Model the fold of this input.
Amino acid sequence: MTAAGEERDDAFGTPDRRLAASTASAGARKGRGATANPTGRYEPARREAFDDGWASDEAIPRLRTEDVPERARTILTRNTSPDLPFDRSINPYRGCEHGCIYCFARPNHAYVGLSPGIDFETKLFHKANAAELLERALSAKGYVPQTIALGTATDPYQPIERDHGITRALLGVLARFRHPVGIVTKSNLVTRDIDILAPMAELGLVKVAISVTTLDPGLARRMEPRAPHPARRLDAIRQLSRAGIPVLVMMAPVIPSLNDHEIEAVLEQARECGAVEARHVLLRLPLELDDLVNDWFAEHYPGRRNHVMSLVREARGGKAYDAAFGRRMTGTGAYADLIGHRMRLARQRLGYAEARINLRTDLFTATAARGAQLSLL
Done:
């Protein structure tokens, strides 16, 4: 409802369809990560589903994934966070069909009037002009190259990339400009682009971070329902490594009492497949994510919810989330220290590099834009 009491339409269809998403039954949302679809925090009115006794026994069709084009005005996002090893990033998609319940980018969907719940994984946007904008940005006078992180919020290789090829087009631009890029994904679709990535790797211009959250297919299916099977991610590490592309394995997020016991096993299998770096991130619950993850635990692991959340709050200074630099990725306190210690011991035992691989910036070719004229001076 709007402030005037009238329902509104949007790029994803009628208001009734949006309401259906918020009240979807377990059958309708099968294959989705979120168990709820709360109204975005900037909306003037809220909807809440409740059982009035008139529920229908008719089968409700599963929610479909929809995506619409978004004409972005800029493509590079800048940051000054000391927690991140990069100062610029690109996200070719808004929302993510992988449906990972823990995704810290979910709250961003509130900025476009949608829910961080089911909407985040069913109502997507693709930046159709991303490659054009990137070429313009890299061609700008005075541009200074530094590593671009590709896929820091939503996965650049989520399923709709097969149709749109936006990530591949971006890599084509970066390769022409000889610009360094770090990719973050949990999809084996990244192996499709080995033909672009391998030559870049020979020049020291690329590395790929693969997220392997669990080796348990059952847990993965509940926690990240439309992401590739853990075995396929390990195979992606193997294929990329064989092609000479350096791979970082990400144990992200580490969730207390759910996947934390797998740290050593994940790092061991990733190392056997060729990964050369390993990092972790402790579960982060900013804004609406706290309620969404609590609701997910109530449905899938009700007996663990209180214990998990108590450990999360212990590592976050008594809160669901601590956004302070230096603490937001790994947390503080006894539990967080234990996870960090286990990661360090596993890296040392398995022969992972402690230092990050630095990519080259000295090969950047500012005149690589299509149709660019060389200066006479």
